[in-house]
Write a structure and sequence with these properties.
mainly beta, five-stranded mixed sheet, 723 residues, 39 strands, 54% strand, globular
Length: 723
């Protein structure tokens, strides 16, 4: 039997059975309008049929999507007590930190490419500013699309996108309380209700008073969100989500290589580099709103109009540990000033950049439908999209105030800079206008061909620190994509895809001869071949081989006065293999596992020492395993835990220094029981059970490289009450 007919037959069987059951149970019940019946959700044992909203080949289930996609559902987020982007990245081997400090907004890399903070993060499929602490309390699932997604996001980095899918209205009343071994305090509520048969709401809120393992880095966070669904008519639905968050926490600077050649040793993970009593916390306020109107024209065609607004305001304050330009060991120029000194000396800068405001605004209209041309079936999506992004900043203060050493128990106190930030000015005004189309063509029962693309026009203006015009860029590109899917069996799909993308050129670091210059946009290409297997017992297995390439952007050594010029020369190619296994292995064991083997190298760069080297912050091998085992001797008790591995991580562009490989083991318990008529769930987890020291991140920011240590052993406890 063709699988596409099964939901319809199941619905028909239920429709026939429900009236008979109601007649037997309540023969004298009064007549009721059909609109008064509560919604009934029928979910098969196999969870992989859930729709993936945001991907470059249109909405569809995991099995039929010709791309590597990972879905982290609410149950996994809760059992792992995931509350930050860096913690989220632990659950997929293709993800890694990419400059993710404690106390600041974080960024990650997918397949070795750092995400574009302007377009790489999405909420309900619409862009959201990545320069915020992306909350998870109002999220039902997180979709990780790996690889090019030009049709979904337009101009973007080639690694992929992260899409947060919001919780929808439901009859739910939960309260969660939590703490950890540092003494943090956490509380959250999740309340939903259908006010009428056509109007439902879902309210989520969280209050977080975190006590950090890093001294002086305690913080707070308040989060509020509201989701509403309005079934306007039987064919028309409006979904609106809005959330607001405010946070305050001192940011912890990263370490740097000593003398550009040696990893720091004897590091105290609880020590805050550069700390000054006058150092104010980093404040981040964010607002995100999305709306989707869906109109079902008929059984075959659907019209969708969506809009999103995202705003993040960052008060960036830090006594920043950076370089050694003013240290005695670096004074003669024998040691690069943008690294720590060989003896561990580092400079401290009073950095203040208040009112750093990022805004994203996006509107999209789509028409989706199905039809046939002879024996060929078509699922067509056509639409238009408008995306606008602005950045307003004040001229920052970034002044040297003193020098300290990484091994000093106490950081000397220096006087702050007397300078004050300048007025706020527009620094970036960017607009993308696009039209897109995708046709999924069905040839018999076994073959599908997907073909489409996105024509995008980019108009972008950049301004200097005083608001004077600095650059005006325009470009128009067609970004094609195609894929072939072979349904080998009911359980096995094999696919091959080709996608082209475009991303903005990077900005030259301040220590290069072309300081502040943005390189021209770069084109990227990706080919991928994969296999997906869906077992009847809810286990999914996936394998993908891919190759992604784009021009190599780097600081090239030369004879200029600065010694380096930032260029795009040669080709950066990432070639990899990904393996995944997700779902229920037995009745009592669930796993979420992945392996990523990745070779990321530059060719024809014009600099011999960089040729063929593994790129910085891209381990050749990562692996992760999360397991959930229901213990047989106590009802409701489950053993949870995980294991993470990363091979040696390159820390210099010439490959001469590498952060060692590491293994990290996590362990936990979950206990679910009833207290009267109310369900209660306890989650106890211990991260980094054996308290291993490791460098989790060797990523870069503004052209400079930093080292961030992984957190020490930490126990966390939460309890959720159903009211």
């Amino acid at each position: 039997m063709n699988r596409c007919y099964r939901p319809a037959l199941l619905t028909l069987a239920l429709s026939a059975a429900l009236p008979l059951h109601a007649s037997d149970a309540a023969p004298d019940a009064p007549d009721r309008s059909p609109t008064e019946l509560a919604a009934v959700r029928v979910q098969a044992k196999q969870p992989v049929a859930d729709t993936v909203q945001a991907n470059s080949f249109g909405s569809g289930d995991w099995h039929s999507t010709p791309a590597s996609v990972t879905v982290l559902d609410r149950s996994l987020l809760d059992s792992r007590q995931v509350r930050s982007l860096s913690e989220l990245a632990r659950n997929d081997a293709s993800l890694g930190d990419s400059y993710a400090p404690v106390g600041y907004y974080q960024n990650i890399a997918i397949r070795g490419f750092p995400l574009d903070t302007g377009t790489g993060y999405r909420f309900n499929g619409l862009s959201t500013t990545g320069e915020q602490r992306l909350a998870l309390e109002n999220v039902q699932q997180v979709e990780i699309l790996k690889g090019e997604a030009g049709l979904a996001a337009g101009v973007m980095a080639p690694g992929g996108i992260i899409n947060y899918v919001g919780k929808r209205p439901a009859e739910v009343r939960n309260v969660t309380l939590g703490t950890d071994s540092e003494g943090s305090r956490y509380a959250a509520v999740d309340v939903g209700h259908w006010l009428t048969p056509r109007l439902g709401v879902r309210f989520n809120a969280a209050w977080d008073g975190s006590t950090s393992y890093i001294e002086h880095a305690d913080g707070r966070r308040n989060f509020y969100s509201l989701a509403t669904d309005w079934r306007i008519t039987d064919r028309s639905t409006l979904e609106v989500d809005a959330n607001y968050q405010t946070s305050s926490q001192r940011s912890a600077s990263g370490y740097q290589l000593l003398g550009a050649r040696e990893l720091p040793r004897g590091v105290d993970r609880g020590h805050m580099l550069g700390y000054q009593p006058w150092q104010r916390p980093v404040g981040i306020d964010s607002t995100n709103i999305t709306a989707l109107h869906t109109f079902q024209i008929n059984a075959q065609w659907q019209w969708r109009v969506s809009a999103g607004y995202s705003r993040s305001v960052i008060d960036d304050n830090v006594a920043f540990a950076y370089g050694c330009y003013y240290a005695a060991q670096c004074a003669d120029g024998s040691v690069p000033g943008n690294y720590f000194a060989p003896n561990g000396d580092y400079d401290i800068y009073d950095y203040r950049s208040p009112d750093d405001t990022r805004r994203n605004l996006e509107g999209r209209a789509e028409l989706r439908g199905s039809f046939s041309t002879g024996p060929v079936g078509h699922e067509l999506t056509v639409g238009a999209d408008r995306f606008e992004r602005t950045i307003d900043k004040r001229r920052n203060v970034n002044e040297y105030v003193g020098t300290a050493n990484i091994h000093a128990a106490q950081v000397p106190v220096f006087a702050p800079s007397p300078l004050q930030p300048g007025p706020s000015v527009r620094r970036l005004d960017s607009a993308q206008t696009a039209v897109f189309a995708l046709d999924r063509m069905q040839f018999g029962d076994a073959w599908q061909w997907l073909a489409g693309g996105r024509f995008v026009r980019l108009d972008e203006r950049a301004f200097d620190k005083r608001g004077n015009p600095e650059r005006h860029s325009t470009l128009s590109r067609f970004l094609p994509q195609t894929a072939l899917v072979w349904k080998a069996t009911d359980q096995v799909n094999v696919y091959a895809s080709y996608v082209r993308g475009i991303s903005l050129g990077q900005e030259a670091p301040f220590w290069t001869s072309n300081d502040g210059t943005f390189l021209a946009p770069v084109l990227s290409r990706q080919t991928e071949v994969g296999v997906k297997y869906t077992a009847a017992d809810a286990l999914t297995l996936g394998a993908a081989v891919f190759r992604t390439s784009q021009p190599f952007q780097y600081a090239k050594p030369d004879a200029s006065a600065a010694g380096y010029t930032f260029v795009a020369e040669g080709q950066q190619t990432h070639t990899g293999l990904e393996l995944t296994a997700n779902g229920r292995v037995t009745d009592v064991l669930q796993v979420h596992a992945s392996v990523s083997a990745l070779q990321a190298r530059a060719r024809s760069s014009g600099t011999a020492v960089y040729e063929g080297q593994q790129l910085v912050n891209v381990p050749k091998l990562r692996a992760t395993l999360q397991a959930d085992y229901n213990l047989p001797f106590v009802s409701g008790l489950a053993l949870t835990g995980g294991w993470r591995y990363a091979s040696a991580n390159v820390a210099t562009v010439d490959g001469s220094v590498r952060a060692p490989a590491y293994h990290v083991v996590d362990l936990g318990l979950r206990f679910s029981h009833a207290l009267g008529d109310h369900p209660v769930t306890w989650n106890l987890s211990v991260d980094n059970l054996f308290d291993r020291f490791y460098w989790r991140d060797t990523g870069s920011s503004a052209g400079d490289y930093y080292l961030f240590a992984g957190a020490p052993r930490q126990a966390r406890l939460s309890v959720t009450f159903g009211l």
